[in-house]
Amino acid sequence: MASMTSPAGTSVHLVDDLRRCVERYTGAKAGIQDLVAGLTDAQFNERPQPNYWSVAECLDHLVVIGSQTVPKLRDGIRRAEEKGWRKPGPYRYGWVGNYFVKLTGPTDDARKRKFKAPKQYTPSSNHSISRIVKAFSGLQDELIETAVLANGVDLGRVKVPSPVTNLLKLSLGQWLTLLAGHQERHFLQAKDVRAAIEGGASPQS
Predict the structure, then answer these.
(1) Domain boundaries, the chain
(2) Which of 48, 147, 159, 186 is the residue whose CA sits 20 to 30 A from 178?
(3) End-to-end distance of the chain based on CA atoms, in angstroms?
(4) Are 66 and 144 in contact (CB under 8 A)?
């Protein structure tokens, strides 16, 4: 376990699985400032090509997914607490969930695969930088708070359904890791888009 300061200002000893997630959420909250620094709202919403998302759409997509998933994660934590499903780790995670974590992550192999986002995850356009930064930063705070709430719960046992379909259920620990990796994936995409807008080249991802 490792110690961290919760959003409420109290010291919490997080299990390693959650500590790593919190570090990634914290990094994302800091990283968005660098990602949008110097952009105008027009550049923020510009698509380098018709079939590519803008920087704004990449980030709005993350806000949409996160805002739909966090309530389900917290419901899973509540159910685990009610059932007494507590364990300090290590945790056992199923191969299906591990596959999705890898599939949606920031690795080069994963980024080569193109997916059409489910309709309810499709981002909207014409955003101000300030609104998206505020929404995304607030989401990271919610994810950190969720990780703190999950501390001590059996992260491998409690299953949480996808916001898209109840047929897809991943463990709580897998969801928290997947969200961190998915954010990093789209940050890389947004950086490519920004470089294409500023340099006139086609994005690489």
Answers:
(1) 2-199
(2) 48
(3) 36
(4) no
Q: Nearest 5 degrees, angle CA 97-CA 102-CA 106?
A: 140
* Mean pLDDT of each 10-residue bin along the chain, 205 residues long: 54 90 97 96 94 94 96 98 94 93 78 58 81 97 97 96 90 97 95 89 54
Kindly report the CATH number that applies to the domain delimited by 2-199: 1.20.120.450
Tokens 């947004």 correspond to 190
- Supply 106's token pair: 């920031």
**8 Å CB contact between 195 and 78:** no
How far apart, in whole angstroms, are the C-alpha atoms of residue 171 and residue 157? 6
CA–CA distance, 120 with 74 (Å, rounded to integer): 20
Tokens standing for residue 126: 């014409």
Given a contact cutoff of 8 angstroms between Cβ atoms, the answer to whether 32 and 133 are in contact is yes
Rounded to whole angstroms, the Cα distance separating 95 from 100 reads 9
Identity of the amino acid at 29:
K
